[in-house]
Amino acid sequence: MSVIHLRVVTPEGIYKEFDTPYLNFQSTDGDRGILPNHMPLVTSLRIGKMTCEEDGKRELYAVAGGLLYFRDNLAEILTDAIERSDEIDEERAKAAQQRAEERLKSGSGNIDVKRAQLSLARAMNRLTVAGL
Which tens digits make up the pLDDT trace of 38-47? Predict the structure, then answer.
């Protein structure tokens, strides 16, 4: 049986590397899925979720955007941050959500609105993946 070898790389180095029979993710053009022997692909990832099978179990991840390269059954994801659903610190994600919402509500001219919106999107994604 063919599998996809998945390697996830963050600024800290290789986060995880394993084989999976499928990979579902959210790209900037929409939701996508790949199976073994898929045609080569390079795509941007948006802040969203990713699902795959790891050690025979379906796993859900929160991805903070990035890039995905796929060729010859090797999928490589380059991202600033990724967390499996059971790794997410719910209190930290809720606090990040609250901080971002407060920044956006403040209306202060000193606030980087785009940065606050991205922070809010990442926090909301993490909470969704954690099941909250």
Answer: 999 999 999 9
